[in-house]
Design brief:
6 helices
């Protein structure tokens, strides 16, 4: 058997993934980067609560609805919706990568203790206050995220292995050894 020269192997076209498939490495990098950004924002929100409160008041003034508006016009309510939506989508992307069959319910189950713990931790903070409207904003964010997570479940991902064992260690077929 004649060996192929090394240059000839470079001339062969590279195998392409099917159209529309997202590489799993790209999703993993996005998940890690997004998680770091969310963690940084959460840390800043807790360490510099006065600045966040100033941002909320500035956003409220920009809305032009006054100091004590109804719940649906509060900027804090809108920020809770956006934050819970982003956290749910981040949890959903992680679920899609590691346990795709659990979408969309595992991200919701993981988010509930996060939201409750965040609101309960505010009871011990002098700069932040517990409000039921924040929980309602979190629920609205979760409700918006659920259909998006159902779409994420349908996303075809390239590079997923069907088995975790190498073929040499995999169990032989039921009908016996096919050698």
């Amino acid at each position: 058997m004649e060996r192929e020269p090394p240059i000839a192997s470079l001339r062969r076209p590279l195998p392409l993934r099917p159209w529309g498939m997202v590489p799993v490495g790209l999703l993993l990098a996005l998940w890690i980067g997004w998680g770091c950004a969310l963690g940084l924002l959460a840390g800043l929100a807790w360490l510099d609560a006065a600045r966040i409160h100033g941002l909320i008041l500035g956003l409220q003034a920009w809305y032009g609805v006054g100091a004590n508006p109804p719940l649906l016009l509060r900027s804090d309510f809108h920020l809770h919706i956006i934050t819970s939506l982003l956290v749910m989508l981040w949890l959903g992307l992680g679920t899609r990568l590691f346990t795709p069959r659990m979408l969309p319910w595992l991200p919701a189950a993981l988010f509930v203790p996060i939201a409750i713990a965040d609101e309960l931790a505010q009871l011990g903070s002098a700069a932040r206050t517990f409000e039921w409207g924040d929980q309602v904003g979190d629920l609205v964010g979760v409700a918006i995220a659920i259909p998006l997570l159902l779409l994420l479940r349908r996303l075809p991902v390239a590079g997923r292995r069907t088995t975790t064992l190498p073929p040499a260690l995999a169990r032989p077929p039921i009908g016996g050894n096919q050698n």
